[in-house]
Amino acid sequence: MFLLGGVEIDKDNNINLLDLEMASMRQGRAFLALINHNIPKTLSSMEQMVKDLEMASMRQGRAFLARIIHNIPKTLSSMEQMVKDLEMASMRQGRAFLARINHNIPKTLSSMEQMVKDLEMASMRQGRAFLARINHNIPKTLSSMEQMVKALEDQRGAIPLAAPRFESLILGIVYSAQQAKLQEREEDQEKWGEVLKRLANVTVNKLRRPEAITTFT
Questions:
Q1: Residue range of the domain that includes 91
Q2: Of 26, 28, 136, 149, which sees the most CB atoms within 10 A?
Q3: InterPro entries, from UniProt (predicted)?
C-alpha cells in the first residue's frame, strides 16, 4: 500500500473508493458553488428575490386570467351561443362520418355480398398475376434452370439487368429453394442446391453494381 498524489493505491482496489470520495467532494463543491452564486446572502437581497418571484407569479396569474377573459363567454347568452356552436360542430362531424358510411358501405345483404365477392375477385386476380409471372418467366426443369443461370453468368457485368429479368432471377431463387427441399433423392437435392447457390451469386454480383438494375423491359 502506498500514496501517490494523495491517492491511496493497493492491490485491493482501494483507489476506486478514494476516487468515489474525491467525486463526492467535487459534487459538494459544485453544490456550494450553486448556493454561493444563486442564493442571496443578505436580508435585503433575499427580500428582493422573494419580491421578484411574487411578481413573476402575479404575471403568470394575469396571463391565465387574460386567457379566461378573452376565450370564455361571460354572459348567459354568449355561453349558450358557445354551447350551440360546439353542438353544431359536433353534428357536422357526425354527419360527415355518416356520409362516409352511407356512400362507402353497402346497406343490403345482396350489395354486401357483392362487395365481398369483388374483394375476393381482386385478391384472386393478384394471385393469378403472381402465378403467371412464375409460370411464364421461370424455368421449371433443372436443365432449363441451369441454362438460365449459365446465360446470366455469361453476361455478368456486361449489360444492366432489366427489372422484369431481375424479378425472374429472384423468383428463380425462391423456386430453386423450394425444389431443393422437395426432392427425395440426395443427388437431385444437391443439383438444385447448386443452382440455388449460383443464382444467389449472380444476384449479389448484380446488386453490387449501382447501374445493374434498370427499368426498361
A1: 74-105
A2: 149
A3: FAM180
Distance CA(81)–CA(33), nearest Å, equals 58
Q: Is residue 125 part of a domain?
A: no
Per-residue pLDDT at 152? 83
Residue where a domain stops, chosen among 83, 105, 127: 105
Rounded Cα distance, 104 and 30, in Å: 67
**Is 187:138 a contact under the CB 8 Å cutoff?**
no
Asked if 48 contacts 56 with a C-beta cutoff of 8 angstroms, the reply is: no
Instruction: Give dist(CA 202, CA 213) in Å, integer.
Output: 12
For residue 195, being part of any structural domain is answered with: yes
Do 119 and 156 meet the contact criterion of CB atoms below 8 Å apart? no
Q: What is the pTM of this model?
A: 0.41
Give backbone dihedrals phi and psi of 4, rounded to 5 degrees, phi first: -135, 110
Cα atoms in the 13 Å half-sphere on the side-chain side of 116: 7
Reference 130, options 165, 171, 180; nearest CA is: 171
Q: Which grid coordinates are listed for 14?
A: 482501494
pLDDT in tens, 1-56: 444 444 455 555 444 445 555 666 677 677 667 767 777 777 888 888 888 888 88
Q: How many domains are there within the chain?
A: 3
Minimal CA–CA distance to 144: which of 205, 192, 186? 192
Three cell numbers written together for 169: 432471377
Note whether residue 118 is domain-resident. no
Q: Taking the CB of residue 50, how many other CB atoms lie within 10 A of it?
A: 11
SS3 29: helix
**DSSP designation for 160:** P
